[in-house]
């Protein structure tokens, strides 16, 4: 199984949800879809119309930046990381 | 019966809830809520008593938060808040209102209207507004292409007015299928054509109590009143120190009374005239205006108040509350005659809602 690590600011929106999840391999898109099944609403927080990843959401697969089509292997580790941005407010 | 009062405050660093009793003098502050998301508008759904907060995160997109326990816990949803997979992404939810049928309406950026019949859990696009023939000409104002004001008719389910910055006011009379521009008589001084059909920069408008055909409007270019549902507007700026300001609220019982907060001008810093803080009110439908600065700082007060950041309650005398862009929350419990500082150190205040609860 693949491993997905979710960021703290995302977990805060879903009380009780843990940081680390085991999911079936596939693509970043399929991983997010699977997580949305157990965490309803998560997909909408990470993806926007397109669908594409939201502009300030970064996904790394085995340490490399990815997009929705990036393959996720059976032993892959996926990190979802909000971009370091802000400063205007 | 016990009366409690709440002030709901939206900021770029989350929502805050202040609670008091009917005296409105001793406020307890809780927050920030909604996980620190930028919150543009907060209301109480009168049907359920739930608090609904509208906002959008730079990282996680738009959402409407809902609390059934006065802010202790929150859920959030954006299900259906989309123009479609191939369309422009919605950045944030700017405004909320509840219609006479209990449906929740949400205005978003880029400008559009959504409707929820389950208290904000799922949303459906009111596509008629986006299909309005002038849509291709809509251009964003300084705050973006935002639908910031929603005024449902109090009894006629088919009628709703909305306001879009730098675009103007529209009304539907068929439940949202078609929308009519309602800007006749409103100036657009920044436009080569000063009296266009659309393109007026509405900042805020509100209906008069018991007279739904009468609306008061604070525009970029003056203050106006209509007595025919927006088909014609008459300017009522005379007597105010400036034509420019953002918020406007109307009295809950007296259709002749409204409050505005003039700022010194769109190109002059956008603070209160002469750096002397004041709220202005009319009791005669805008024929004359009364200044009130009692209790407010009268010098060196470079204060701004944004479009959603003034509210009134329903008590007698009516309470008026406004929040500044520098985080001060001011309240009057005598209908805007005198003012007291509620709290001074909030983030920039984007919205204020005043709620009275009887239990």
Offer a quick outline of the entry.
The complex is a heterodimer of chains A (89) and B (359). Chain A is α+β, with helices and mostly antiparallel strands.
N-to-C terminal Cα separation of chain A, in Å? 40 Å
* Topology, number of strands of chain A: 9
Strand content of chain B: 35-45%
Discrete helix count of chain B: 1
Distance between the termini of chain B: 6 Å
Strand order within the widest beta sheet of chain A: 2-1-9-6-7
Biggest β-sheet of chain B: count, sense, barrel?
A: 4 strands, antiparallel
Strand order, largest beta sheet of chain B: 3-2-1-28
As residue ranges, the low-confidence spans of chain A are: none
| Main structural class of chain A | alpha+beta
Low-confidence stretches of chain B: none
Topology of chain B as a string of helices (H) and strands (E)? EEEEEEEEEEEHEEEEEEEEEEEEEEEEE
Biggest interface between protein chains, with counts per chain? A-B, 21 and 25 residues
- Please state the oligomeric state of the protein chains shown: heterodimer
Shape designation of chain B: globular
Structural class of chain B: mainly beta
Q: What coarse outline of chain A follows from CA principal-axis ratios?
A: globular
Kindly describe this structure.
The complex is a heterodimer of chains A (89) and B (359). With 89 residues, chain A is an alpha+beta fold. In chain A, 22% of the residues lie in helices and 34% in strands. Chain A has 3 helices and 9 strands, in the order E-H-E-E-H-H-E-E-E-E-E-E. Chain A has helices spanning 8-11, 28-38, 42-46; strands at 2-5, 20-23, 26-27, 47-48, 52-53, 57-61, 64-66, 71-72, 77-82. In chain A, the strands form 3 sheets. A 5-stranded mixed beta sheet of chain A has the order 2-1-9-6-7, covered by helices on one side. A two-stranded antiparallel ribbon of chain A has the order 3-8. Chain A is globular and about 30 Å long. Chain B is an all-beta fold. Chain B has one helix at residues 127-130, and strands at 3-11, 14-21, 28-33, 39-44, 51-57, 61-67, 75-77, 92-98, 104-109, 112-116, 124-125, 147-152, 160-164, 168-172, 180-181, 202-208, 211-219, 222-226, 234-235, 245-250, 258-262, 279-282, 290-292, 310-312, 320-323, 329-332, 340-343, 351-358. In chain B, the strands form 7 sheets. In chain B, strands 3-2-1-28 form a 4-stranded antiparallel beta sheet, with no helix packed on it. In chain B, a hairpin with a 7-residue loop joins strand 24 (310-312) and strand 25. The radius of gyration of chain B is 19 Å and the shape is globular. The model of chain B has no long low-confidence stretch (mean pLDDT 96). The A-B interface holds A 9-10, 12-13, 15, 41, 44-46, 48-51, 54, 56-57, 82-83, 85-86, 89 and B 12-13, 35, 38, 58-61, 63, 73, 76-79, 82-90, 347-348.
């Amino acid at each position: 199984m693949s491993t997905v690590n979710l960021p703290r600011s995302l977990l805060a929106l879903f009380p009780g949800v843990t940081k680390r999840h085991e999911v079936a391999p596939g693509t970043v898109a399929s991983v997010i879809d699977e997580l949305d099944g157990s965490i309803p609403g998560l997909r909408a927080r990470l993806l926007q119309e397109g669908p594409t990843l939201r502009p300030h959401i970064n996904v790394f697969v085995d340490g490399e930046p990815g997009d929705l089509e990036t393959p996720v292997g059976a032993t892959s580790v996926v990190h979802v990381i909000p971009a370091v941005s802000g400063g205007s407010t | 019966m016990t009366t409690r009062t709440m002030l709901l405050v939206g900021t770029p660093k989350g929502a805050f809830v202040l609670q008091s009793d009917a005296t409105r003098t001793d406020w307890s502050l809780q927050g920030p809520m909604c996980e620190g998301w930028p919150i543009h508008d907060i209301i109480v759904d009168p049907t359920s008593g739930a608090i609904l907060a509208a906002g959008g995160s730079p990282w996680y997109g738009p959402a409407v938060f809902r609390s059934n326990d006065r802010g202790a816990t929150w859920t959030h949803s954006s299900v259906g808040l989309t123009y479609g997979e191939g369309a422009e992404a919605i950045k944030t939810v700017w405004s909320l209102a509840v219609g006479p049928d209990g449906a929740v309406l949400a205005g978003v950026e880029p400008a559009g209207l959504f409707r929820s019949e389950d208290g904000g859990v799922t949303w459906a696009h009111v596509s008629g507004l986006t299909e309005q023939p002038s849509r291709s000409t809509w251009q964003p104002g300084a705050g973006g292409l935002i639908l910031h004001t929603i005024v449902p008719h109090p009894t006629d389910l088919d009628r709703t007015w909305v306001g879009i910055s730098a675009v103007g006011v529209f009304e539907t009379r068929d439940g949202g299928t078609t929308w009519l521009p309602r800007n006749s008589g409103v100036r657009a001084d920044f436009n080569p054509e000063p009296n266009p059909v659309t393109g007026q920069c509405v900042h805020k408008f509100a209906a008069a109590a018991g007279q739904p055909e009468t609306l008061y409007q604070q525009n970029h270019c003056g203050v106006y009143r209509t007595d025919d549902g927006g088909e014609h507007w008459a300017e009522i700026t005379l007597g105010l120190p400036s034509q420019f300001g953002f918020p406007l609220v109307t009295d809950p019982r007296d259709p002749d009374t409204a409050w505005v907060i003039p700022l010194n001008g769109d190109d002059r810093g956008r603070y209160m005239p002469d750096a002397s803080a004041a709220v202005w009110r009319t009791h005669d439908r805008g024929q004359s205006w009364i200044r009130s600065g009692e209790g407010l700082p009268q010098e060196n007060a470079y204060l701004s108040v944004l479009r959603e950041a003034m509210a009134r309650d329903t008590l007698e005398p009516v309470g008026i509350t406004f929040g500044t862009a520098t985080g001060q929350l001011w309240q009057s419990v005598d209908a805007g005659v005198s003012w007291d500082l509620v709290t001074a150190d909030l983030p920039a205040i984007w919205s204020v809602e005043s709620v009275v609860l009887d239990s």
